[in-house]
Amino acid sequence: xxxxxxxxxxxxxxxxxxxxxxxxxxxxxxxxxxxxxxxxxxxxxxxxxxxxxxxxxxxxxxxxxxxxxxxxxxxxxxxxxxxxxxxxxxxxxxxxxxxxxxxxxxxxxxxxxxxxxxxxxxxxxxxxxxxxxxxxxxxxxxxxxxxxxxxxxxxxxxxxxxxxxxxxxxxxxxxxxxxxxxxxxxxxxxxxxxxxxxxxxxxxxxxxxxxxxxxxxxxxxxxxxxxxxxxxxxxxxxxxxxxxxxxxxxxxxxxxxxxxxxxxxxxxxxxxxxxxxxxxxxxxxxxxxxxxxxxxxxxxxxxxxxxxxxxxxxxxxxxxxxxxxxxxxxxxxxxxxxxxxxxxxxxxxxxxxxxxxxxxxxxxxxxxxxxxxxxxxxxxxxxxxxxxxxxxxxxxxxxxxxxxxxxxxx
Length: 410
Ligand code: USQ
Description:
Layout: E1 3-7, H1 14-23, E2 27-32, H2 35-43, H3 54-65, E3 69-73, H4 79-89, E4 93-96, H5 103-106, H6 110-133, E5 138-144, E6 159-164, E7 167-172, H7 180-199, E8 202-208, E9 210-212, H8 223-226, H9 239-249, E10 253-256, E11 262-267, H10 268-280, E12 288-293, E13 296-299, H11 300-313, E14 320-323, H12 341-344, H13 354-366, H14 389-397, E15 406-409
Parallel strand pairs: 1-2, 1-4, 2-3, 4-5, 5-8, 8-12, 9-11, 10-14
Antiparallel strand pairs: 6-7, 11-13, 14-15
């Protein structure tokens, strides 16, 4: 059994991961400074289901499962705090979700970009140094498939065999991320790789795709008190979750531009299993191991179509709109990313099916009265301000919900 320290234990993935490990008999500690709750407040957004405060969540979990989760409240960029938590809890595995998780948030302004990179990169540097001084810990770090971007070649799992001038080497796969958030993960990966080479740390970098889903086997034990932080707004809601809420709210699904953007996706339950597999099969000392963590690829347009069909079966009239893309990204591109290593460790994927979408939609339907439609659109503009003065002025003159006016409706 492991002593698992979950960093970012109050978040969408952190809290379900804490319960998952606890239920399977591991000793679990959670660490969180509630920054995410402050960022939500700043933007005026909230999760679909009410999420109790950390102390209450831990009490509720104890009442349901009979198991104790230790709780540490503080900021991962604060060295004294990190050092004290590591010495007190003495983890054998650290699962690191404790970062600013949103690409759009990092593109709001200069301040948001800087805060995201300082928060994420400094936090991970503190963890690296805590591990340097306490050997025997395996770090499972949440990276992102977005670190690779969308190159015109197959994406390997972390490393690429390169032939150059008659010599060859296995080198880190090139990174071409498309937001300051994804860049913060790239910087983390470089720092972690360096620390593995220098100090023989053991690290698994999970380059995760876009996660969707609202419940896990543990949240189902008491959906009222153990729910996870499920977002549907432009900044914190990932695309499929967002589409499900838009379908239920009766507003058009916002496919950005052509909708040919292809990404790797996985269900929230598979995320937990992947993290478990990484913990149970640790990287060796000195190894910087990279897994591409997703189960299937879709274009955004395909996802919208899946939601439309699943919604129709539930009697929802779902409209799909191609809106002006607020991001700067390719809308049609080659994408073929390897994802073999977790399958080799025993992952049995739960692929996106109508049943799965149906269950997400049904839970959203149950809570439809809590949907705040006016928060879905947050008007984050990724383009430089000077680039399109008329467009920016026009956008500033219209209310937030009008921003997503369709270019084309299907
Ligand atoms: N998109 C739409 N319409 C929307 C929202 C998004 O077309 O209403 C498009 C985006 O333009 C993008 C794709 O859907 O092409 C995915 O967007 P997303 O918001 O679901 O995901 P992203 O911003 O890429 O970030 C999310 C998580 C992040 C994680 C990443 C994995 O928030 O923490 O690292 O997924 S990946 O996308 O593989 O980089």
